Amino acid sequence: MKRHRGSFSALGIGIRAPSQTTPEASARIKRAEKVFSLVADPLAEYWISSLNQNTESLGALYSVGKDRRDTYREMVERIVDAVRAGLRVCAVAYGHPGVAAYPLHESVRRLRAEGFDAEMLPGISAEDCLFADLGIDPIVGGCRSYEATDFLVHSRGVDTAGNLILWQVGAIAETGFKLERGAWNPHGIAVLTEVLLETYPPNHEVIVYEAAQLPVCEALIQRVALASLPEAHITPMSTLFVPPLSKPAVDQTMLRRLGMAKKVVARAGGSG
Ligand SMILES: C[S@@+](CC[C@H](N)C(=O)[O-])C[C@H]1O[C@@H](n2cnc3c(N)ncnc32)[C@H](O)[C@@H]1O
User: Domain 7-120 has what CATH class?
Assistant: First the structure.
């Protein structure tokens, strides 16, 4: 029998699977010949296996003291090898498969470069849940989103008139893997707090956010003064939200250039 050519789908199951998993992602999982799961939650893992018995967890590649970059390289090798062997392969992450998910992006890149069909389907990320749970519209005021260590190491700076989202605050400067359920590096959180205090006042309210992973649970939303951030309960699943401190200044020259000056004056006068 002639074997078909291997192909790859990078999928995300959302934060609360299966209710946040798209029908197209579920369909890809069901029809795959090999499924690799990269999810943290045993219930989600179980659900994926119930859709397709040819599911293998790549979670076992993590180990304490091992550099995560080595783990990610091994994940990519496993995925790419299965596609080269002619299988229809899926890799399934939680959230969105393209957000903070190097092995999935890299697998798509490598496989496309080798001439295979490789796709990535969107999923509901932790940030999407944050917008919904905290009532944030990212285009009102704008929104910058950084991995926390990247934010610090590259001195990204902040726009205090916009929203700021920092991912992986529980694992700042940690390149390995730990089993601790609390913050992996409290010193990193202390440094992050000091850096944010260079711009924001100590009483500026920030939110340590954890989206609910089960439909029966509620999101964890801890509102703390920035100066107290090191005492907050932070885990590897926490995302930090820093709301705007001020409104953006209006560029009068640009208003005139765009022909908007009259409209803005009219609106301010209540007639627009
Ligand atoms: C490796 S990234 C995975 C992101 C995931 N692919 C997504 O689309 O949301 C892990 C980081 O995602 C964020 N995260 C994961 N689960 C979360 C949750 N339940 N609530 C809030 N943030 C979460 C945290 O910032 C965590 O450190």
Answer: alpha beta
All structural domains of the chain with their residue ranges: 7-120, 126-242
> Nearest CA to 165 among 139, 144, 194, 186?
144
Judge if pTM exceeds 0.70. yes
Which residue among 11, 217, 234, 238 has the greatest number of ligand 1 atoms within 8 angstroms of its CB, and so is best to mutate?
A: 238
pLDDT tens digits for 96-155? 999 999 999 999 999 999 999 999 999 999 999 999 999 999 999 999 999 999 999 999
Amino acid 207 reads I
Name the residue with tokens 């390289």: 73
Whether the Cβ atoms of residue 63 and residue 177 lie closer than 8 Å to each other: yes
Using the mean position of ligand 1's atoms as its centre, give its distance from the Cα of residue 260 in Å: 40
Residues marked active site are found at 68, 72, 94
Query: SS3 sequence, 245-258?
Result: CCCCCCCHHHHHHC
Contact (CB, 8 A) for 134 and 211: no
For residue range 171-222, list pLDDT tens digits in order.
999 877 777 777 778 999 999 999 999 999 999 999 999 999 988 899 999 9
Encode 104-143: b = buried (16+ Cβ within 10 Å), e = exposed: bbbbbebbeeeebebebbebbbbbbbbbebeebeeeebeb
Q: In the CATH scheme, what is the code of domain 126-242?
A: 3.30.950.10
